[in-house]
Design a protein that fits this description.
Helix content is 35%, strand content 15%. The chain is of the alpha/beta class.
């Protein structure tokens, strides 16, 4: 057990100053939330001394004139509802004018109810609990293993959010990678929104849990005693190669008697008459304090000059799974994008990201079987100008959907690559089959979706994803498929490819991935019967190719969409939503039965999306005219 010495060489002047700053912060928290008429003042009040000491005790290193400076320390309020404290800290530092606090939660203000990237000092958006520590892992990985930077990452956690499994995913991986530049604070105030926390004030139990994950843990019996907090901060340097967790016993609503340690005050602002009484508890506030944040060390920025690359030379008679082409594409593009990195959740020998891992081991992070943590860690890396390509079985991204949807509020730049999509994976069965992934990523604003159908288009998809600023989802296929394109073929976001076309085409068949190959088989069968269909490789699911599809509508009688995905939220729905003003009928074949194990060909027939059923459906549509 770590024993905190009773006194360190901090002057009484420093302690006195931090006590006065803490009083000022409480004033800002109370007045801003009362003015807003909402917010979480009690959750903010409990962490005041912890954060005042971090910001103004000489520990935080930050250039407030340049929030984007690469060697600024990172501050993440994982308990995002404590945002009144977060904004108060920056106001005390004169990074923003204190008067702006009176606009808290207003539509015209960037001081939102939970921090977002609209506020320039926010590293990552928070508010959905349990994600901040994972984002911190990403920042810490970048500093230690990629940029060789001296910045530290500080994460404020609430004790209630320690029930979230993603916190322990982050704790596990932080220890694995010896992230001694990651410092977490647990504000142990014992109260959640509606009830007490599981462990309440048992800080020794929390300590044991973090220690079991390999962390260096410091406990503070009174998290409102500034001298005790300083003493804890001085212990951080003893962590050696371990991440650090400071667990402080605190009181929710500290400083205001009527709301201290009261359950019913979570998420409630004081009324104006209650605020007047609270000010008596607070006492005289000094508004002329020198709240200075220390400057960070100035480091030379890394050289990210783009190098050369060559497209892979795939032979026309090869059979190559797009998942295999993904790994090769990462290697091919690695020199052009020196800030490209890859991450995987322990299935890199199936997603083929191991191809990149073997070639560039220093730019690859195995995140083990913890998809939620991988997504948020990738967010942290993307905020440090890295281009993270993160891969796993597409089905497993669904468990990280909260992290995926939250990433957009941080202006993220993550490339998600989901392999083993659809029923065509075969014998592994339904638990491994991604049949909801397109719907999920379609629902994320500004997230592009690419669905390559051969090795060449996969390589182009990876290139386009790296070039694109923003989130991208790439769907890959397990089974080997023929090469459809040559190196001369150009691809772009929002564009599709017409594979087969003639003036005799009666119906347009749209496919992607494995169903495109089934459509091409159907084309050959129908051609022998003197029935011509136009075959379109959708490639870009989002944004969708309105121009090509409109052309097909004008020149053929109907569109038949064939997809290895459930109907809800899939490709057919994407096309219908884009072509709302057209009268041409849009038919679809999709996965409609509960899948089971079997050979890919058996499953394609079972779900009626194989070439056989495409032929039958085309005939049925023609006969209906």
């Amino acid at each position: 057990m770590i024993k905190i010495p009773s006194f360190y060489a901090s002057t009484m002047e420093t302690v006195s100053k931090l006590v006065e700053i803490s009083k000022l912060l409480r004033y800002y928290i109370l007045t801003s939330t009362t003015e807003a008429g909402s917010g979480h003042p009690t959750s903010a009040l409990s962490a005041v001394e912890l954060m005042a000491t971090l910001f103004f005790g000489g520990y935080l290193k930050y250039n407030i004139q340049d929030p984007d400076f690469i060697n600024n320390d990172k501050i993440i309020f994982s308990k995002g509802h404590a945002s009144p404290l977060y904004y108060a800290l920056w106001a005390a530092a004169k990074a923003i004018d204190p008067s702006e606090l009176m606009n808290l939660r207003k539509f015209t203000s960037n001081l939102e109810g939970h921090p977002t990237s609209n506020f320039k000092y926010t590293d990552v958006a928070t508010g959905s609990l349990g994600q901040g520590l994972s984002a911190g892992v990403g920042f810490a990985l970048n500093a230690k293993y990629l940029d060789n930077s001296s910045y530290k990452t500080y994460v404020l956690l609430g004790d209630g959010e320690l029930s979230e499994g993603s916190v322990w995913e982050a704790a596990n991986i932080a220890s694995k990678y010896k992230l001694n530049n990651l410092i977490a604070f647990v504000d142990c105030n014992r109260l959640e929104q509606a009830t007490e926390t599981i462990l309440e004030w048992d800080i020794d139990a929390y300590k044991a849990r973090f220690e079991s994950f390999g962390w260096y843990v410091i406990t503070i019996e009174d998290g409102h005693n500034v001298q005790n907090v300083i003493t804890a901060f001085e212990q951080v340097k003893n962590s050696q190669d371990k991440p650090v967790c400071i667990i402080a016993k605190t009181i929710k609503g500290k400083g205001i008697k009527m709301i201290e340690d009261k359950l019913e005050w979570h998420g409630k602002a004081l009324k104006r008459e209650e605020l007047e009484n609270a000010m008596h508890d607070l006492g005289k506030v000094n508004f002329n304090l020198d709240c200075k944040i220390e400057e960070p060390e100035h480091l030379k920025e890394l050289d990210n000059t783009a190098g050369n690359f060559n497209w892979t030379d795939y032979k026309s008679d090869e059979l190559v799974a797009t998942r295999k082409a993904y790994g090769q594409a990462l290697v091919a593009l690695a020199e052009k994008y020196p800030n490209l990195i890859a991450m995987d959740c322990g299935v890199q020998n199936s997603t083929y990201s191991e191809t990149f891992q073997k070639k560039y081991p220093n730019r690859f992070f195995d995140m083990y079987i913890a998809e939620q943590n991988m997504v948020s860690a990738a967010l942290g890396l993307s905020k440090m100008n890295k281009i993270p390509f993160i891969s796993t079985f597409a089905a497993f991204f669904t468990r990280a959907f909260d992290q995926i949807r939250m990433s957009q509020y941080s202006d993220s730049n993550i490339k998600f690559v989901g392999s083993h999509a659809g029923i065509s994976i075969g014998e592994d069965g339904p638990s491994q089959m991604a049949l909801e992934d397109i719907a999920m990523f379609r629902s994320v604003p500004d997230c592009a979706i690419l669905y390559p159908s051969d090795a060449v288009s996969m390589e182009r998809a990876v290139y386009l994803a790296a070039e694109h600023r923003g989130n991208v989802y790439i769907r890959s296929t397990r089974m080997d498929t023929p090469i459809l394109y040559s190196s001369e073929n150009a691809f772009k976001l929002g564009a599709s490819k017409i594979i087969k076309e003639s003036v005799y085409d009666s119906i347009t068949v749209v496919g992607a991935g494995v169903t495109l190959h089934e459509a091409l088989k159907a084309y050959d069968v129908l051609k022998d019967k003197n029935i011509f269909i136009r075959v379109v490789d959708l490639f870009s699911v989002k944004p969708i190719d309105y121009n090509t599809l409109s052309k097909c509508i004008r020149e053929t009688k109907a569109i038949l969409v064939v997809e290895d995905h459930y109907a809800e939220g899939g490709i057919a729905e994407a096309i219908r939503s884009e072509l709302t003003n057209v009268k041409t009928k849009i038919f679809s074949l999709n996965v409609g039965k509960t899948p089971r194990s079997g050979k890919p060909s058996e499953l394609l027939d079972y779900e009626e999306i194989s070439s056989k059923f495409i032929v039958e459906k085309v005939k049925e549509i023609i006969n209906s005219f």
